Amino acid sequence: MLKPLLATLLAAAVATAAVAAPADAGNPQHAHLQGAALLHQREQMSFGVYYYPKQWPEAQWQRDFDGMAKLGFDFTHMAEFSWTYLEPKEGQYDFTWLDHAIALAHAAGLRVILGTPSAAVPSWMGQRYPQVYRVDEHGQRHEHGIRAEVSLTDPTYKAFVAKIVTAMAQRYGHDPRVWGWQIDNEPSTFPDFSDSARKAFQDWLRKKYGTVDAMNAVWAGSFWSTRYGSFDEVLLPNTTLAAEDKLSPHAVLDLARFRADTQAQFLDDQADIIHKYAGHRQWVTTDYTNVSTDTDPRRTRDLDFPTFTLYPVAGTNVLGGDSYAVGKPANLMEAAAYFRPVNGTFGVMELQPGQVNWASINPQPMPGAISMWMWHAFASGASLLATYRYRHPLRGSEMYHEGIVGTDGVTLSRTGREFTDTLRDIKAFEGKLDPSAKLPERLAARYTGYLWNQDVFWDLEIQPQTTLWNTWAYRNGYTLAVQTTGAPMDFIAEDSDFSRYPFLIAPAYQMVSPALAAKWKRYVEQGGHLILTSRTGQKNELGQFPEGPWYAPILDLIGDDVDGFDMLPPSVDAEVKASGKTHAWHRWADILTPRPGTEVLATYADHYYAGKAAATTRKLGKGTVTMIGVSTDDGELERAIVRGVYQNAGVPIEDLPAGVFHDWRGGYDFMVSYNPRPFDLQLPASAHVVDGQVPLAPAGVLIWKEGTK
Ligand code: GAL
Question: Does residue 662 belong to any structural domain of this protein?
C-alpha cells in the first residue's frame, strides 16, 4: 500500500532535484531507503541549526529556541555528543533534560533531529572498559577526552551503543516532535589495531574467501613467505611499519574494504534499532565528512539518505587571489555529485557558519560566500541544510568557532545575519519552483556520469608509483574538465544504469572486471560516449595484472595496444603534442599504439616513445571511446580532449572558468562562482534574469529562467 505513495513522493523529489538527478533508488542495495520520502512532503529545503542544551543555562533554552524559530529555522539538531548526560552512570539513563529541550524546541515551533551519541563516550566507560578505545598504528591505546577514538569492532563498545540507541529509540521513536535521526557524527575509520579489530578482520576474510588458500592466492602469499596457514594467523597490515610494496597491496586493499564495511555495518546496526521502534515515521541519516576516502555511503543498506558536512573556508587558496575566503571550489559540487545519486535525496547537515577553529589558518569567509554556498546547495538539489552551531561557545573545545549568534548569545554574528537573511530569501524563492519541470534538453543532452568507487581510490593510493601521483588532484582535474562544460554530473557506481548518461567518464579506473568491460562496450555500442584515462583497466577486479598484454581488459574497447607506461622526475623535460600545441607532462604516460580505425589525438614528443600515441579516439557501434593515456602537468590537454568529445558528438557546451558552476532546479538555472575574478558570461537571448548580476562576481549567484521574457 505504501509503495505507490513513496514512489510518487520520490519521483517528485527527483524531478525537482537539481539537474533531475537520476537516482539509483532502483538498486536493490537501497531497497530500504524509504524515509527519504519524508523529506519531500513539501517542495522546499528545510533549514536547521545545531544546539547543545547542556552547554547553556537551562533558563536560556527557551529564549534560544525562540530565537532560532524567529530567524526562520525549521529544525534544531541535538544530542550527538551528550552520552555523558544521557547515561551518567553505567546503565542509568537520564532523558529528563532532553525531554525538556525537545518540549521547548517544539513549543518554539521547531522540529528536532536527534543525534545518537556514539561518537563521544562517557568517562566511566573508558575507565572501566579501556578496550572501547582504538589502538593506533603505533600500538597506543587511545583514551578519554577527545571524541571518535573508539574501536568499532569492540563488542563492549558496540553493546553499549546498542543499548543507548535502543533506549533513545524506545523513548523518541514514536514522538512526532522528532523529525529524524543522525547516527554518530562524521563517521570515519581511524586505523584500529586492537585485538578485536584483528579478530573482526579475520572473520571478514573468512567470509570473503572461504578458505585460507583462496585468500593466499589473491594476496599472492607465494612470494616473501607471506602465505598464511589459517585465518587466525592473519595480521592487520600496518603500512606505518612497512611502506609501499613491502606489504601485499591486496592485503592492504582488503583492510581498507574491511574498515569501510565495518563502518557501514556500525551505521546500519544503529539504523536498524531506530527503524525497529520508529518504523518509517522518522528518517535516519548520518553526516558524512564531505567526500572522505575512508567511508562509503554505498556500503550502507539501512540509512534513508546521506547527508554531509561542509566547511569550505579553512585556509587553503585553491584558485588564488581572494578565493581562500570564498572557499574550496570543488567541495560542495563534488559532494552533491557524490551523495545525490545514492538514492536521489541528500542534505547538508553542517554548513560552516563563519570562522572555524580547527584549520591551520582560520580566515573569515568573504561577505556573500555563505549566502552563495546556501544557494549552491539549494541549486544542487539539497533537501535539508543545517548550520553548525547556534551559539558561539564561551569556553571549552572549539571555543573559537563562530555561531549564528555571537558571544552574548543573542546578537547575530555578521555571518549569522548573512545565513539567516539568505535562508529567508531561499524560502521566499522556492515557491516559484515548478515541481513538474523536467531537465531541459540543452542540459540533459550533456548529462555526464563519472564512474568512481572507493576501492579504486584505495588501490591507486596503495601503489601510486610516483610521488607526483595524487589521486584527489587527478580526480579533480577531470571533475573540472567536465564541470567547465556546464554538464550536469553525477558520480556513479558500476551497478548504476549507464544508459541514463549520454557521456560517461572513468578516470584512472584502475581495476576493471570483464563484466565492467562488457558493460562499457554495450553502453558505447548503443550510442554512449565513453572517456577512459591513464591507468584505467591496468588491473583486474582483484587488483592484479591479468595474464596477458598490458591493459588487457580494455584493449578491444579502446582500439589500441598499450606498449607500457612511464613516469618522470620533475627535472626532466617531456612533452606531448596535440593540435599544434605542446604540453609538459611528468605524472603518467600510457604509451599507445592505435589499431586500424583508431584516430590519434595526441602524441609523445620525446624519449624513446616519441611519435607514439598519448590519446586516441574511435567509433564503436553508435558511440565513441576516447582514451587519454597521458596526465599533463596543467591538465589543459585533457580538458581540451574532454571538450572535444562533447563537441564531436554535436552537443553544445559552455566554457566556464574554474569554480563557476551551473545547476538547474525546478525550471530555473543557477550559476555560482568560487572564482576570484568576475566572469562576464553571455546569457542566451531567451534568458530572463531573476536575481544576481552579470558579470558574476566572486561569491556571486545568478538565477535565470530560459524561454520566458
Ligand atoms: C565538524 C564536526 C562538528 C564540529 C565542527 C566544527 O567537522 O562534525 O562536530 O566539530 O566540525 O567545525
Answer: no
